[in-house]
Amino acid sequence: MGFNLLPWRARRDRRCRYRFYGILFVLALGMTSLQALFWWQHQKAYETLESVADHTQETLRALELGWADMQAHSDQDIADAAWVEAQIKLMAASQAMMRSPAELIAHIVSARPALFWIERVAFDRPEDAHPQGMVVVEAKVAVRESITELVQPFNQGRGEQVEVGELAVNPSGLYDVRLDIVP
Amino acid sequence: MPMPSFSKCLPLFSLDWDQQSVQLAWRSPNAETLGFHIEAVPEAFPTDWLWRDDPASQAWLRSLIHDHVPQGGLVMALPSADLFHHWVETEQSLLGESSKDWSQITQSAIAQAPELSHHQLVFDVLPVGHWRRDGSLPDEQSMSRWWVVGVPEAIIHQHLRLARQLDVRLVSLNIRLAALLEVHHQGHWARGCHALINRHGECTEVAIICDQIVEWMTHFSTDRLSAAEHHQHVISELHRAQSAWAFRQIWLAGSVDSDMMSRITASFDLPVRPLNEEATDLDVSRGLLASLTRHH
User: Fold this and answer.
1) What would the CATH number be for the domain defined by B6-74+155-176+282-293?
2) Contact between chains at A1 and B5 (C-beta distance less than 8 A)
3) Residues 70..129 of A with a Cβ closer than 8 Å to B: which?
4) Which residue in A38, B62, B67, B231 is a FRET match for B41, CA 20 to 30 A apart?
C-alpha cells in the first residue's frame, strides 16, 4: 500500500472503507443471525402455538364430550335422584295416607281403563298450601265428569283429600287433568 | 494480523509512459506472473499527447488497452513535477489510521511549509518506515515521522478525465518514487544511506533513502536545461545531500543516460549502478501493482 492521492481513496478513506465493509459484514452477519434466530423462535413459537391449539382443541373436544357425557349423566343422575327422592317421599306420604295414591290410581284405571291415561306421578311440596307435601297425578281423560265421579268415593270420610284441578282441553280432544292427593 | 488490501480482490492494470512508449502491465488476483505490453508511441503524436483532448490519440490508447489488457481497475503514477513533498515530525507516535491523525499530520505539514497552502492540494501521508518489510511492527520513529505528499486537485481531475475517456476505472494514483520503493524495498537499500536518481520525461528526482526510509527528495524540471546543466544540477543536489546523509551508493533509475552515469561516477568516489539492469524496465509498473496487491 503506497500513496493513493485519489481524494476518496486517500489512506484514511481506505481505512474507513475497511471499517465500513467490516461493519457492513458484521451487520449483515448479525442481521442474518437475528433473522435465523427469529425464524427459529418463530418456528418454535408456532410449533408451541400449534401444540397449544391442538391441545386446546383436544381439551375442548374432551370437555365437550365430557360435558355432554357429564351432562347426560348429570341429567340422568338428577332425574334419578329426583325420582328416587320422589319415590321415597311418595312412599312416606302414602304410608301417611289412609289409602295410598297407588290404590286410587289403580282404582281409577281399573274402573275406567279406556278413559283415563296417567302421564306423570310426582310428589310436590308447595310451601304455602300444603307444606306437608302431596302426590300429584297428571293424566288425560276423555270425559271430564268421570273424574269427579271416580274420586268422589275417596273424598268422603277420609283423611286425605283428592283435589281435581282445572281441566284443559288439548288439541287431541282429551282433557288434561291434575289430581292433587293431599294427606 | 495484517489486513489484506481491498484491491487484492480486484483485477488491476497499470499505465505508464514516457516520450517514446506506453507501458501496460497487469496482474490478475491469482496470477503471480506479470503480464505486460509495451507499445511505441506514434511519431505523429505531440509530446504531451496523453493530456491533450485529442480524439485520435485517445482512440489509439483506448484500443491499445482494450486489445491487450484484461478488464480491471487502472493504477497510475503521478508525475513528480506536480508533487509537493514534506516530512513531518509528530510529538507523539500516531497510527495515522484515524482522520484526526491524518488531519493533524497534514495541518502540521502546511504550517511548516507555507507553499503547501498556496495551492488547492490533495494530500496523502505515510509513515517513513512504511517500506520496511522485515515483518516487525512499525517502530516509534516510523510512526512519529511522516512523509506528506500533496498534488493539485487539477492534476487529479486530469487523470480522472483521462480514465473516463479510456473507458476504464481509475482506482489508485500513487507516486513514482513510492512505486520504485515498492519493488526494491528488500534489496538494494537495506542498510545505510543510498542516493537514488530517477528521471522520467522532463523531470528528474533525487532522493536519499536510509534504512528503507525516504529521508529526503527533490525534483526539478529539465525542460529548459541543456544536458550539461542537467548533469551539473543533479551533481550539485547530490553534494548537498551527501553532507547531510553521507550516502554510500548511488542508484540510477528511469531514463538516466550513460553520460550522466559517467559524470556522476567521476564526481563521487562511490559505486554508481542502475537500479534495474534488465532490458525492459517495468519497475514502476510492477511497483504500482505491488502497492495494491501486497499484504500489509
Assistant:
1) 3.30.420
2) yes
3) none
4) B231
